[in-house]
Amino acid sequence: FLRRYPNHPEGANNLACALRTQMRFDEAIEVLKASILLDPSHSVVWNTLGTVMAEQGDSANAAIFFDEALRLDPDFAKARYNRGNMSLALGEVERALDDCDTALTKKITEDERQMMLLARSTIKINLGRIGEGWDDYEARLHPQFSDVTQFMINRPNWTPGADLSGKTLLLIGEQGLGDEILFANLIPDVLEALGPEGKLILAVEQRLIPLFQRSFPTAEVGGHKTFKVDGRSVRIMPFLDGRAEEIDLWAPLASPLREFRRRLEDFPDRTGFLAADPTRVAYWRDQLAAAPAGMKVGLLWKSAITNGGRHRFFSPFEQWAPILATPGVCLVNLQYGDCAQELEQARRDFGVEIWTPPGIDLKQDLDDVAALCGAMDLVIGFANATLNIAAACGVPTWLISAPGAWPRLGTKRYPWYPQVRTFLPPAFADWSPVMSEVGGALAQAAAAD
Question: For the whole prediction, is pTM greater than 0.90?
Answer without folding.
Answer: yes
